[in-house]
Amino acid sequence: MDFEDILNIESIPTEVILGHKDNELFKIDLNKYTSIIITGSTGTSKSVMLNQILLQLIKKNNPYDLKIVSINPTKVELKPYRVTKYSYNSEIDLECHSFSAILNMIKKRISLFNEYNVNNFDEYNKISFKQSLPLIVLAIDEATFLLKEKDSDEKLKWIIEHCKETGVILLLTTNNIYNNFFDKGYNTLADIRISFDFVCFEDAKQANINDCQNLSKNEFLVEIRNEAPALRFYNFNFNDKTIYEILKEDE
């Protein structure tokens, strides 16, 4: 199944389709599932899935309601999103290599909510005399270097815990699973955990997601927090040119 076919399916602005199996589409609403962590060995389509999520959101949202913070330590995969009208660069350094800037951005929103005596993003956007805040998509592709930093585990845990209330969607990919964040099982706090293939059982176990080894090409395992069992789906056929085609449409 090709990704271009998925882009033509109409749905609510925050719904995305992550995969397919036996003519069944795996859909999620990012208003409900605000944190997604994607793991797997190098070259197993983690970045492809991240791109597919971003492009679906761009296709269905205007840049006033949706902004993307693209943090790309490798400076390769997410580069196209940094120069579009969807880029969110007024509050955060897009070249940052730390969770601290992200944490401070979210804390600013919490302070704003406290100032207007509201509890969350949705309540703030209902204030008639205030301009609505955009939904922020925090896309981090290959967080290896960030996860090696001091206290990165606690900072990322805090970010996950405050996504929903602050109007932030966290999308993070990594093959670096041997660190405190995974050692402490903090990745299991994410609403959705997705894993592509790992080369050995020890890696799959460290990722805290069962049976994510010996997966076939483009197959992934998904676990939804507090739901069981894990589900298997296939990623869509994808051409990198689609990224530039969609972004050009929205210029």
In angstroms, what separates the terminal alpha carbons?
Answer: 28 Å
- The rough form would be described as globular
Helix content percent band:
25-40%
Strand line-up in the sheet with most strands: 4-5-6-3-7-8-9
Could you explain the architecture of this structure?
The structure is a single chain. The chain has helices at residues 3-7, 46-60, 99-115, 121-124, 144-147, 152-166, 180-183, 201-206, 241-249; strands spanning 15-21, 24-29, 35-39, 66-71, 135-140, 168-174, 192-195, 219-224, 231-234. The longest helix is centred in the middle third of the chain and has 17 residues, at 99-115. It has one domain: P-loop containing nucleotide triphosphate hydrolases (Rossmann fold, 3-Layer(aba) Sandwich). It is globular and about 55 Å long. It is built from 9 helices and 9 strands. With 251 residues, the chain is an alpha/beta fold. The strands form 2 sheets. It has a 7-stranded mixed beta sheet.
SSE layout and pairing:
Layout: H1 3-7, E1 15-21, E2 24-29, E3 35-39, H2 46-60, E4 66-71, H3 99-115, H4 121-124, E5 135-140, H5 144-147, H6 152-166, E6 168-174, H7 180-183, E7 192-195, H8 201-206, E8 219-224, E9 231-234, H9 241-249
Parallel strand pairs: 3-6, 3-7, 4-5, 5-6
Antiparallel strand pairs: 1-2, 7-8, 8-9
Helix pairs in contact: 3-6
